[in-house]
Amino acid sequence: MNMRVHGRGGAGGSGATPITHYTSPYEVGPHVVLTANTLLLIAAVIPASVTFANIAFHVGIADGVNNSDFGIYNAAGALLANAGAQAMGSATFSSFAAVQGSQTIAAGLYFIAWTSAGSVLGVSYDTYCTGFYYNASFGVSVGGALPASITPPALALNGNNASFALS
Fold it and tell me: What is the CA radius of gyration of the chain?
């Protein structure tokens, strides 16, 4: 997956909090509408260790009724951080506090996932770059919550990618 890394620090001095944003190299494009109780899953290579307490993505089509969730799995398939099942009722770049709190992850392969109890929520993506893995109907979820673990898929190049951020 082609990615650009944006790094920006605080105002300087002690206590400045760096924010790192990983995203695909193109701006938000079309939307993929989630299928109820399945996962949209992409593979992402995080190029450096990052400490974060918030996760974010662009909600392309809002769903203020059904619970939905967004999170990150490690290469072994364990859920590391997620937003928790909730209605995502604003179509905008949305940030969520990770249920698991602040943590540091090492550089490496991760899986970014979305799920919903309904078939309304749209995740923005782009088709301008090639990703390592993309599946709009991966696995099973219940009640709009991501499962605690997944069986990691085999990687295969494809033409879709989605933006996300860790801060």
Answer: 15
Task: Please give the C-alpha separations between residue 64 and each of 13, 75, 102, 165, in angstroms, as whole numbers.
Answer: 41, 31, 27, 22
Tell me the C-alpha distance between 82 and 110, whole Å. Answer: 13
List, for residues 34-59, the tens digit of each pLDDT value.
Answer: 899 999 888 888 888 999 999 988 88
Domain 4-8+24-166 sits in CATH 2.60.120:
yes
Q: Model pTM?
A: 0.80
For 140, other C-beta atoms within 10 Å of its C-beta total 11
| Residue 83 and residue 147 in contact, taking contact as beta carbons nearer than 8 Å | no
CA dihedral 8→68→32→156, nearest 10 degrees, is 70
Q: How far apart are CA 6 and CA 97, in angstroms?
A: 20
Cβ distance 47 to 19 under 8 Å?
Answer: no
Q: How far apart (Å, rounded) are the C-alpha atoms in residues 37 and 114?
A: 10
